[in-house]
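Hello forum,

I keep getting stuck at the same step: I have a sequence, I want structure tokens, and every attempt I make locally crashes halfway through. Rather than fight my setup again tonight, could one of you with a working pipeline run this one for me? It's a single chain of 120 residues.
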Amino acid sequence: INLISVNFDPQLVSVLREVRYLESLKRDDVEIPQSAAGIYAKNDLFRRYLANLDLIVSRYNKVRETILDVEYPLIEGQLSHLDVQLDRAITSLNWKSDCEYRERERQRGRERERVERERE
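Reply #2:
Ran it on my machine without issues. Output:
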């Protein structure tokens, strides 16, 4: 089975958590490093990305795990197309990639949902 997962660096999670804590202290004697503050400025964006990726991964893996042998030929072409798109995304995208990818990924997510609904 071709399952996928989200690879979100635990160190990044730690940095975001620590900066949030430091900002909550609101103390003048605590200086947040500029690099950490810059990352934290994108905290909401990272959260949205992560939520979208988790949703995509969950739905994709559900289809892969629950598809019956008799159903597979019906959606094989669509799954192959999705796999090509996912492989491209996995090998070429990172957290700094162009934001236009988000819209394409939303469209692909809607396509995955349609495939899932067709199976039901």
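The helical segments are 10-25, 34-40, 43-66, 72-92, 100-119. If your local run keeps crashing, start a new thread with the error log.
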